Amino acid sequence: MDEFARAEAAVSEALLLLSEVPGRGEAVSLPHLVGQRFAALGELVSENGAFAAEGKGVAKSLAEWNLHHTFRSLLCHGTATVTVDHRGRWHLVLKMLTFRSGEAVRESMVIDEEEAAERLTALHASRQRLEGRLRGMTAGICR
């Protein structure tokens, strides 16, 4: 969850900085919900966004980060159960009930300890790339 929180903080700080850029900052919204913040930043760095030129690398990192969205939702908003198999290896069972278009959708994910380690490594690397590109973009804008 720390990896998600760090990425969310970096995106929030970037949005705040972009909102203060004279002449272009008024195009920046500062939404309350985290998912909306990622979407707002994505629009700003998209091909037709107010910060398209500076944000090309950020757009790529946001797309990569979005691959972790389902895992984040289940981890942060679902229920978790840890089971242990006959070999002493743990498994994390995540379950969540959501509503989409008025219909109930039950989601679940089972992750063993080896897969959890792989996901954490991928998540960490993805977050670092996103933060690095955000730093590069904002440093270029602040000059």
How would you characterize the overall build of this protein?
- Helix content is 55%, strand content 19%.
- The protein contains 5 helices and 3 strands, in the order ααααβββα.
- It has a 3-stranded antiparallel beta sheet with strand order 1-2-3.
- α1 runs parallel beside α5 and α3 (56-66) runs antiparallel to α5.
- The protein is elongated.
In summary, what is this structure?
The protein has helices at residues 2-19, 34-44, 56-66, 69-77, 113-142, and strands at residues 79-84, 90-100, 103-112. The protein has 143 residues and is α+β, with helices and mostly antiparallel strands.
In one word, what is the shape?
elongated
Strand content: 15-25%
Secondary-structure element order, N to C: HHHHEEEH
Q: Tell me about the largest β-sheet.
A: 3 strands, antiparallel
Task: Report the structural category.
Answer: alpha+beta
Total DSSP E strands: 3
Low-confidence stretches at least 5 residues in length (pLDDT < 50)?
none
Number of helices: 5
Helix content: 55-70%
Radius of gyration over C-alpha positions, nearest whole angstrom: 18 Å
| Distance between the ends | 33 Å
Mean pLDDT across every amino acid position = 94
The order of strands across the largest sheet is 1-2-3
Observed structural traits:
55% helix; 3-stranded antiparallel beta sheet; 5 helices; 143 residues; alpha+beta
Note the topology.
Layout: H1 2-19, H2 34-44, H3 56-66, H4 69-77, E1 79-84, E2 90-100, E3 103-112, H5 113-142
Antiparallel strand pairs: 1-2, 2-3
